[in-house]
Amino acid sequence: MDERPTGPTAHGVGGRWYWVVGGAVGGLAGSLLFLVVLWLADPTIVTEAIPAIYGLEPGMTGWWFHVGHGIILGVVFGFIVSREIVLGTLSADAESAIVGDLGLSARMSLAGMVYGLAIWAFLPLIVLPAWTTIAGAGTAAFPATAVESLLGHLLYGLLLGLLYALIVDVEPAAQATDAPFEEADPG
């Protein structure tokens, strides 16, 4: 009979709330990096477009909203990658030499990039236009499909995954987790 506890503590990622801390810190740092990309591309995205999404006047509130979104999405990332099925997939032996040679931290960083890409595909491309239409705010001046938005989301995810792997001790959990599929033959 398997007597391992369930939930985040079962994964050995450093305690009950470390997946939250790792996700929040990674999300904070990633969102700040993303904001630098937006600021360098066009500062009005931060000062005008982001506040306009919430019906607010232009100003620095865009920084706060973007950082808040980054922290929340970072915690969601922490929750997702601390689940046994995802952690088992990330730590599984792979037949591909490229993937097989990557350590868990590198795989977690790549998972963060995929997560950033998913956020870019879902939030600015689907949710934002629907939100502005329903709210009657018209079309937001946010460059959802622009290169800086894609680049910012990818960098956000990369830094999120990297910091998560550095902050949260995922190695013991990965060793104790079974892959949800047949792994490569090590011999």
Averaged pLDDT: 78
Radius of gyration: 19 Å
Task: Briefly note the structural class of the backbone.
Answer: mainly alpha
Morphology: elongated
Order of helices and strands: HHHHHHHH
Query: What percent of residues are in strands?
Result: under 5%
Number of helices: 8
Query: What is the tally of beta strands?
Result: 0
The largest β sheet comes out as: none
Helix content: 55-70%
Total separate domains: 1
Span between termini: 30 Å
What are the low-pLDDT stretches, counting only 5+ consecutive residues below 50? 1-13
Task: Provide keyphrases for this structure.
187 residues; mainly alpha; 8 helices; 68% helix; elongated; disordered N terminus
Detailed description of the structure:
The protein has helices at residues 18-41, 43-53, 61-81, 84-91, 97-100, 104-135, 147-167, 171-176. The protein is built from 8 helices and no strands. With 187 residues, it is an all-alpha fold. Helix 1 crosses helix 2 (43-53). It has one domain. Mean pLDDT is 78; it is low at 1-13.
